[in-house]
Amino acid sequence: MRFHLIDRIETCAPREHITARKVTSAEETYWQDTGDGPALPFGLALEALCQSATWLIMLSTDHRLRAALLAVGEATAHRPVRPGEVLRMHATVESMTEEAALLDGTVTVDGENVLEASGILCALIDAERLDDPAATRRMAHQLQGGGRWHDPSSHHRRRRRHPAGQRRRHHLAGPGRRPQRRRAADHLRRGRLPGADRRPGQGSLTRPRRSRPASGANTSPGWACSVSRPPGRR
Predict the structure, then answer these.
(1) Looking at the chain, which runs of residues are DSSP E strands?
(2) What pLDDT does residue 51 have?
(3) What burial class does residue 93 get, using C-beta atoms within 10 Å of its C-beta: 0-12 exposed, 13-18 middle, 19+ buried?
(4) Do the beta carbons of residue 151 and residue 140 sit within 8 Å?
(5) Is the pLDDT reported for residue 132 higher than 70?
(6) Closest Cα to residue 181, out of 191, 190, 194?
(7) Taking the alpha carbons of 200, 202, 208, 209 in that order, is the dihedral positive or negative?
(8) 183: helix, strand or coil
(9) pLDDT of 199-231, one tens digit each?
(10) Residues 106, 110, 111, CA angle at the centre, nearest 5°?
(11) pLDDT tens by residue, 43-79
């Protein structure tokens, strides 16, 4: 569809009728200057009605088929549509087969008819020839007032959200254990690093024993490094 002239599908009864809505805006580019101010072109008002009929066909066939306009028996415009007005398109199925459908419809503003059309003849074609079926289902879901679309065929995991104030910890020490970051911090507070003094030749960091500092010596706590060598080495 070149122009998406439907904002919301309000009601839909498959193979029977549909009511859709379009809120017009002065920011849109299709307005036509008629001397009395901008007005919606007659062809676009009829297009909005035909798009509603197309959605009715797709929702009636579980998005297998869509309508391709062949002819319009009669269409009458009663008054121009001005920017800011809300259009409501109502289409009704008169007859429908697997190959074609015949519909009638009206376009109203605040309950007043601005356009009437009858004998809208459409050929029903395979919907996959024109649009991606997943994109069509997603748009139909949104037009019917649905929230975020979830494709049941996708197997992507949803991203886990952590409560406010809790930081996600990445490096876990193992099942049932605390994170590695916290374990390292605990060892530092105790005066040594994790994994020290496990094998000969591996350094360890220990705090020096408390003693009375000499006069003029630096009294700030520090780290003393001792290296143990394997037996037989000097």
Answers:
(1) 8-13, 17-23, 32-33, 38-39, 65-77, 86-96, 100-109, 112-126, 204-206, 224-226
(2) 95
(3) buried
(4) no
(5) yes
(6) 194
(7) negative
(8) helix
(9) 555 444 445 555 555 555 555 454 444 445 555
(10) 50
(11) 999 999 999 999 999 999 999 999 999 999 999 999 9
Joined tokens for residue 219? 């009294």
Phi, psi of 42 (to 5 degrees): -60, -40
**Cβ 12 vs Cβ 23: under 8 Å:** no
Give the model's pLDDT for residue 166: 52
CA–CA gap between residue 45 and residue 109 (Å, rounded): 12
User: In the chain, helix, strand, coil percent, each to 5?
Assistant: 20, 30, 50
Between vectors from CA 119 to CA 115 and to CA 123, what angle results, nearest 5°? Answer: 115
CA dist., res. 54 & res. 32, Å (int): 25
Count the neighbouring beta carbons within 10 Å of the beta carbon of residue 42. Answer: 16
Identify which of 94, 124, 103, 106 has the alpha carbon closest to the alpha carbon of residue 19.
Answer: 106
Residue 123 reports pLDDT greater than 80: yes
Q: Which residue has tokens 């190959």?
A: 99
Residue 133 has a pLDDT of 82
CA separation (Å) from 114 to 94, 105, 143, 213, 221? Answer: 21, 11, 23, 98, 87
Closest CA to 23 of 89, 108, 84, 114: 84
Query: Of 190, 186, 192, 187, whose CA–CA distance to 226 is shortest?
Result: 192
In this structure, the number of other CB atoms found within 10 A of the CB of residue 102 comes to 18
